[in-house]
TrEMBL record:
Domain NB-ARC, residue spans: 256-404
GO BP: defense response to virus
PANTHER family xrefs: LATE BLIGHT RESISTANCE PROTEIN HOMOLOG R1A-3 ISOFORM X1 (PTHR15140:SF33), TUBULIN-SPECIFIC CHAPERONE E (PTHR15140)
UniProt family annotation: Belongs to the disease resistance NB-LRR family.
Superkingdom per UniProt: Eukaryota
Protein name as catalogued: Uncharacterized protein
SUPFAM superfamilies given in the database record: L domain-like, P-loop containing nucleoside triphosphate hydrolases
An MF annotation (GO) of this entry: ATP binding
Keywords on record: ATP-binding, Leucine-rich repeat, Nucleotide-binding, Plant defense, Repeat
UniProt key word Ubl conjugation: no
Residue span(s) of domain Disease resistance protein winged helix: 488-557
Domain Tf2-1-like SH3-like, chain residue ranges per copy: 6-55
Length: 1010
């Protein structure tokens, strides 16, 4: 120790030592910074003077360094993320410059003001502008935000002339082409990095600025004209009534967002008639709970003059409902209770007049009860009133929502005229219906009637096409773009929704917000609501669309409007050899073909690639845009044969601005290095058939990448069984993968993700996958705490791999999954003896779990049964071993879907307490099981039992459950059986004749959750 601590003037510390620690500097008037050893690096070095005085005066407070235990979770590295703001304070003799810094692991509101000079010395990379100026998210964000959203959105609200439509097209062209040209120049700067390329970038920015200035001036004139025309005729623009229906998630725990949305609907300003807000969902999922929470919320108490609640139930009684409501509105006595139904209805109506009221009708089952009570709710002088109802029946919810908005005689008259003009064409009727739902003014309905009537033609297809065009014209610009994108797929294609929305995200069709997936789902749902897109498959609860398609007439509409709108161009890429054995790539106008019929295209027999191109705008004065390769922004492959893929691979380097690259049905031995030059790529999908694929470190160049998919080929059952013994492809990522911070979806057969690189901070930014939503399939030994903490926001995770190393098996790596607080879906394949030994080691919010080839004992499922939020459990081939399953705990308290497939289960004993809210039971390839526990008849929520490739006795058991439910008065469970096993010793069994009524032809699972 170098001297003793002493106090100088005014109680200040001498700038020497305190104990073994040197004083570095004084902070303000009451604190000091100490130089701490490396072992205490996670301890903040600044201490208040009072703390230091205590340590000097009382030696018992001194603790040896080796005894100090710092809890990792209570500390974090001091890492600045970004500068949020900057301010300058001017004094007489100098200026003090401060910057507002957001630190790692802190919220925005906890950012701190720091000295600009100190931060530049300590973190110079935080102030480096070079990369930030070139990132796509700066200038293109400016162009997209300024042009399409500010201009186009306003135009859609004030579209009063044909002149507007033409200008909208020009705005879109400028936005698209400006972004295209800018990205081209940035690419040149990054790849060439010479002075000339910087000059060209500057010239491009100047041209784009001139275009935007010109558009602004024209838009101002048009909007002024629109204001003059529309002055005095304000039309309320509200969404379809179906959008007011709150569909409650099956798991209400932690769903504060739904409660907040409900509170907003109840308290938001609304001057019309009392608004009806239905909450729809299955029994027992918490509809009543959330309704009670908002009913007693303090904002509701302040908002409404009267609140009244009535529980309806299935065996409803209108008089009892009226009495329940009157308890909250008037003083009850025997005379009131003895009154008749009509008198009670009159009392209720009078008590609610000229008041802002909230009525809650809980558990309403039928249309009749709604019609019986709604006549009691006054509609005049009751602005801001709300009627909240909970129901299990979606039809009742829709009926309540629409009937509350009664149409006048004028609307009915115009509606009948429109219906007559549709000439009973089903597609025309449903599309016009979807259009009228969004129209609230009689003038809008009359305009639709006039347009439909003008389609004078005897050809039904032609009439229908014109009506579809009318519905298309009423879409917003973003919905139009999303609909037109269906034209890139083959006609009649059943398109997986995940594939569709991820390509929308990559193309930039959606608003630049955090929840891109949610925004995409909203757009798709609105297109479905307008009957322009067909939902082919849905999730178990019916809330999410799994796959979709468009009608052939709408498909033709997409092809026509793509050319007219000039949003993008669709071409076919042709790969071939000439007679001189020279390979070539050419583009031709897209020719539609049907995927389902396998149509051949004569000019590309060796493989079809379809491309989306940015249209050339007449104002850009840039000859480089005439190069079709530079205009191409997306490439999709559809053809089943592809012999000339290497021609395309050699040309990839010329597709400088490519955003989407989806390759299928080909063999790729190694990662194509040509892709590494495609710095704007957001969506990459590659096929691979080999055992190993190494991703090069240069993958970090693809800093815009959002989705990376490696598809494995379709395998037969025999091949799939072999993968249980010898796992499939192993893809190895370098540590540079952590630099791709825009990644949202990683889907690969099996991949190795390394730990963080040695320096986890890159130019002031922490490397992690904070945007990552889905991962599959991660190698088990990658589930270290370091990796898991780097993917904390993931919602879907798949793990696959067989570990021969016994030390790995005993390491408890999968216990680290408990840190994934956002995880809702988990799939585990193989992973013998790696699963957590306790339910508390699983993620708390887990809703869906799939196990496959894990060889667990059936008794292990008692641990799974304790998961508090589990709704879907899939036990695929080889998930469990053994012949008997006897659940020993009252568990699976929220399980709604249970699938057991390809197993050796022979004896199954369970009670209704083991599966209290089960709705759907699916048994596939159960070759030994002959009986479902008869106690399942007492599960009142059970709706469906589905059997596929099972013994006939199992079907008889399901029939007995069905009969038992009928006998006790419940709605009988629906039983479906496909492909029953028949053995010689069972043939001729008399009971089989009775089973014919519930056997059916082979079919896929309907609405099965993924």
């Amino acid at each position: 120790m170098k001297g003793v601590m002493s106090f100088g003037k005014r109680g200040k510390l001498s700038p020497r030592y305190i104990g073994p620690y040197q004083i570095v500097r004084r902070i303000g008037g009451v604190a000091y910074e100490l130089e701490l050893p490396a072992s205490l690096g996670s301890v903040h070095p600044i201490f208040h003077i009072s703390m230091l005085k205590k340590c000097i005066g009382d030696h018992s407070l001194v603790v040896p360094i080796d005894e100090i235990k710092v809890i990792d979770s209570l500390s974090y590295d001091e890492e600045p993320v970004e500068i949020l703001d900057r301010q300058v304070r001017k004094l007489r003799s100098k200026e003090i410059v401060s910057v507002k810094v957001l630190w790692r692991n802190q919220k925005v509101e906890e950012a701190t003001w720091e000295s600009d000079h100190d931060m530049k010395v300590r973190y110079p990379s935080l102030f480096e502008p070079a990369n930030n100026e070139l990132e796509e998210k700066n200038f293109p964000l400016f162009v997209k935000k300024l042009v399409p959203e500010v201009f186009v959105k306003n135009f859609e609200k004030n579209n009063v002339s044909g002149e507007m439509t033409d200008f909208e097209v020009e705005v879109k062209e400028v936005a698209s082409a400006s972004e295209h040209t800018f990205q081209l120049r940035v690419t040149e700067v990054l790849l060439a990095n010479d002075e000339k390329t910087h000059e060209r970038l500057s010239d491009t920015l100047q041209l784009v600025a001139e275009d935007i200035d010109r558009i602004w001036k024209v838009s101002t004139k048009i909007q002024d004209k629109g204001k003059q025309v529309s002055e005095g005729s304000l039309v309320q623009d509200i969404s379809s009534s179906t959008n007011n229906i709150l569909k409650v998630n099956n798991n209400m725990v932690g769903r504060d967002d739904q409660k907040e949305r409900l509170l907003e609907d109840l308290t938001g300003s609304y001057s019309g008639e009392p608004k009806v807000i239905p909450i729809v969902g299955m029994g027992g999922i918490g509809k009543t709970t959330v309704a009670k929470e908002v009913y007693n919320h303090e904002s509701i108490l302040r908002r409404f003059d009267i609140r009244a609640w009535a529980t309806v139930s299935q065996q409803h009684n209108i008089k009892e409902v009226l009495l329940s409501l009157l308890q909250s509105t008037i003083k009850m006595d025997d005379m009131v209770k003895m009154s008749g139904e009509a008198e009670l209805a009159d009392m209720l109506q009078k008590s609610l007049k000229i008041k802002r009221y909230l009525i809650v009708l809980d558990d309403i089952w039928s249309f009749e009860v709604w019609d019986g009570v709604t006549r009691c709710f006054p509609t005049e002088d009751n602005a801001g009133s709300r009627i909240l109802l909970t129901t299990r029946n979606n039809e009742v919810a829709c009926y309540a929502a629409f009937s509350s908005e009664a149409l006048t005689y004028e609307f009915e008259t115009v509606g009948k005229q429109i219906a007559d003009e549709c000439h009973r064409l089903p597609l025309t009727i449903v599309v016009v219906d979807g259009l009228l739902k969004s129209k609230r003014a009689i003038e809008d309905w009359q305009g639709v009637a006039k347009d439909v009537k003008s389609f004078v033609t005897n050809d039904p297809d032609e009439r229908c096409s014109r009506v579809l065009g009318l519905s298309y014209d009423h879409l917003t610009s973003d919905l139009k773009t999303c609909l037109l994108h269906f034209g890139i797929f083959p006609e009649d294609s059943d398109i997986p929704v995940k594939r569709l929305v991820r390509s929308w995200m990559a193309e930039g069709f959606l608003k630049l917000e955090n929840d891109l997936e949610g925004e995409a789902e909203k757009c798709l749902q609105e297109l479905v609501d307008r009957c322009l897109v067909l939902a082919c498959k849905k999730s178990l609860d019916g809330t999410k669309i799994r796959s979709c398609k468009v009608h052939d007439l709408i498909y033709n509409l997409c092809l026509r409007e793509v050319q007219r709108e000039n949003i993008f161009i669709m071409n076919d890429i042709v790969l071939d050899y000439s007679y001189s054995e020279c390979r070539y790539l050419s583009m031709q106008k897209m020719q539609p073909f049907k995927r389902v019929t396998g149509d051949k295209i004569d000019y590309c027999p060796y493989g079809l690639y379809r491309a989306l191109l940015t249209p050339v705008h007449r104002q850009l004065r840039d000859h480089d845009n005439n190069d079709l390769l530079k205009q191409t922004r997306s490439i999709f492959s559809f053809h089943l044969q592809d012999s000339y893929y290497y021609i395309l691979k050699s040309e990839l380097i010329h597709f400088k601005l490519l955003k989407v690259l989806e390759l299928r049905h080909i063999e790729i031995d190694n990662f194509p290095v040509q892709i590494l030059s495609l710095i704007w790529l957001r969506y990459l999908s590659l096929p691979h058939r080999r055992k190993k694929l190494d991703i090069p470190p240069e993958i970090c160049r693809l800093w815009n990448l959002q989705t990376f998919i490696v598809q494995r080929p379709q395998t037969s059952i025999v091949q799939r069984l072999r993968t249980y013994i010898v796992p499939s492809v192993l893809i190895t990522f370098p540590e540079e993968i952590w630099g791709l911070m825009q990644l949202r979806h990683l889907k690969l057969p099996r991949f190795y993700l390394p730990d963080f690189p040695s320096g986890s901070v890159d130019k002031g930014r922490h490397l992690d996958f904070s945007n990552l939503q889905t991962i599959s399939y991660l190698y088990p030994r990658c589930c270290t705490k370091e990796v898991i903490m780097g993917i904390q926001n993931v919602k879907e995770l798949g793990i696959c791999g067989y570990e021969t190393d016994l030390s790995i098996r005993d390491s408890g790596l999968l216990n680290n999954l408990v840190h994934l607080q956002q995880l809702e879906t988990l799939s585990i394949i193989l992973c013998f003896k790696l699963l957590p030994a306790s339910a508390i080691a699983f993620p708390a919010m887990l809703k869906k779990l799939k196990l496959e080839a894990t060889a667990l004992s059936w008794s292990y499922l008692d641990i799974i049964a304790e998961l508090p939020n589990l709704e879907v459990l899939k036990l695929m081939g080889g998930a469990c071993r053994g012949y008997e399953w006897h659940p020993n705990v009252r568990g699976f308290t929220r399980l709604k879907f249970l699938l057991i497939s390809d197993n050796s289960l022979k004896y199954w004993k369970a009670t209704d307490d083991n599966f209290p809210v089960l709705e759907r039971l699916v048994l596939k390839e159960s070759r030994n099981l002959k009986e479902i526990p008869i106690e399942f008849a007492e599960i009142y929520t059970l709706q469906l039992i589905e059997l596929d490739w099972c013994l006939p006795e199992l079907g008889e058991s399901a029939a007995r459950i069905q009969k038992e439910q009928e006998d006790i008065g419940n709605n009988p469970v629906n039983v479906r059986i496909s492909n029953p096993y028949y053995f010689d010793h069972l043939e001729g069994a008399g009971t089989l004749a009775a089973m014919r009524g519930i056997y059916r032809s082979p079919a896929k699972l309907e609405n099965a959750p993924e």
